[in-house]
Specification:
This protein is mostly helical and 50 residues long. It is built from 1 helix and no strands. It is rod-shaped.
């Protein structure tokens, strides 16, 4: 019974870990680009979408 639980936990970690890393990197990229984006936004103030 113990090898089954061990295999399940390791498999779950190997599945979830890349997802967590992906979202952490995505959050970091959004934070990094927030500054330059706010500086560029006034250039497009006269345009609208829709």
């Amino acid at each position: 019974m113990f090898p089954f639980i061990k295999t399940t936990v390791v498999g779950g970690l190997l599945f979830i870990l890349p997802l967590v890393l992906f979202f952490l990197l995505l959050e970091k990229a959004v934070r990094l680009l927030r500054g330059p984006t706010h500086k560029l936004l006034p250039m497009f103030a006269e345009y609208s979408v829709a």
